């Protein structure tokens, strides 16, 4: 039988940015054991996708070249591996496919049953794909580190979300507001109304002196910061934190790890926590349900056909998305 072929986006070395992406025709992957094969309807990009291409996780990621980027995929199951129990051909799903495998920027992609969840008709493929890594990254630090209970119980906490207009930030603001929180958010001037509409109680323009200082207009001190921006030093955060305030850094670099170690060694009550998401199926299910119930919305910045994936890539590198960037085969 002739091998089935598909269109995909690959790169075969570090660097190169959008121009390093190649359009290729390659065999459709096979769903092994506990994997499902999806006909991809939408994939969403995350900054880590192009950072891997830049070599930020060299030599661990990619595990090998050529590499098809893309971890957040929504689509329809067209084949199931022999050990798959919970899904069948024709099911609409959303999945996270780990970075070491990638594979999302293609017409077909495999995903592990462990990180695949059903997608109800009320949640579009683009909305679901937009939710995956960004949603999980917003959810985990809020609930597991900041201790916000999303059923609205628990003591009130003051939360700061930086880069609240971005893929992670716009979801973090909405999730934080499901809890008993007062949310301060930062974004650019053009997005202030947008971020307020997500539920933020006060919004700072990061290009003003008050915004750059992260100073709450109502004088609050933050119990936790979901830090989605980059380049803000500890010395800026420190005076704005409550006694036991934590900065949860989603893009930790060397200085974050140094601050983390120093704060631990000196038994500081205020802490910096370098954070890397651990995607969990139950959390993705929960987020999909929130979208279905109309309690969380994923905002799409822009949509690109797979044939223009390099434009989507460039848009993500540019760093000015409002919400999520989607690629559709
Ligand atoms: N640790 C993890 O597991 C994990 C997982 C996912 C993402 N991340 C990281 O989290 C970061 C955010 O990801 P993302 O997908 O949300 O990025 P994104 O969508 O590309 O963020 C873009 C947005 O950030 C805003 N922004 C940029 N700098 C800002 C600043 N200093 N203050 C306020 N707003 C600012 C931009 O606003 P303007 O256009 O107005 O400048 C834009 O709306 C990235 O570094 C990503 O790699 C980490």
From TrEMBL:
Source species, domain of life: Eukaryota
Protein name: Enoyl reductase (ER) domain-containing protein
SMART domains cross-referenced by the UniProt entry: PKS_ER
Membrane-spanning parts: none
Organism: Acacia crassicarpa (northern wattle)
Entry's Gene Ontology molecular function annotations: oxidoreductase activity
Residue intervals of the Enoyl reductase (ER) domain: 16-327
């Amino acid at each position: 039988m002739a091998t089935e072929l598909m269109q995909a986006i690959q790169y075969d070395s570090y660097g190169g940015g959008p121009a390093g992406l190649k359009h290729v025709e390659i065999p459709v992957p096979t769903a092994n054991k506990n994997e499902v094969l999806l006909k991809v309807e939408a994939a969403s990009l995350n900054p880590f996708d192009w950072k891997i291409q830049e070599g930020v996780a060299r030599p661990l990621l990619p595990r090998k070249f050529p590499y098809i980027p893309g971890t957040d995929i929504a689509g329809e199951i067209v084949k199931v591996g022999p050990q798959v129990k919970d899904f069948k051909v024709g099911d609409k799903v959303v999945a996270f496919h780990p970075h070491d495998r990638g594979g999302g920027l293609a017409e077909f992609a495999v995903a592990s049953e462990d990180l695949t969840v059903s997608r109800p008709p009320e949640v579009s493929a683009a909305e679901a794909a937009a939710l995956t890594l960004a949603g999980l990254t917003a959810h985990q630090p809020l609930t597991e580190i900041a201790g916000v209970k999303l059923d609205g119980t628990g003591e009130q906490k003051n939360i700061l979300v930086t880069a609240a207009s971005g893929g992670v930030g716009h979801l973090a603001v909405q999730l934080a507001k499901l809890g008993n929180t007062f949310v301060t958010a930062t974004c650019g001037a053009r997005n202030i109304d947008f971020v307020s509409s997500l539920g933020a109680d006060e919004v700072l323009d990061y290009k003003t002196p008050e915004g750059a200082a992260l100073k709450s207009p109502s004088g609050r001190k933050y119990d936790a910061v979901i830090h989605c921006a980059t380049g803000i030093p500890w010395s800026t955060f420190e005076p704005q934190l409550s006694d036991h305030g934590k900065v949860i850094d989603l893009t930790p670099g060397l200085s974050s790890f140094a601050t983390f170690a120093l704060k631990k060694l000196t038994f500081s009550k205020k802490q910096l926590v370098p954070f890397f998401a651990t995607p969990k199926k139950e959390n993705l299910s929960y987020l999909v349900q929130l979208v279905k119930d109309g309690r969380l919305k994923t905002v799409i910045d822009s949509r690109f056909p797979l044939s223009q994936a390099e434009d989507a890539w460039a848009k993500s590198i540019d760093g000015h998305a409002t919400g999520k960037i989607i690629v559709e085969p």
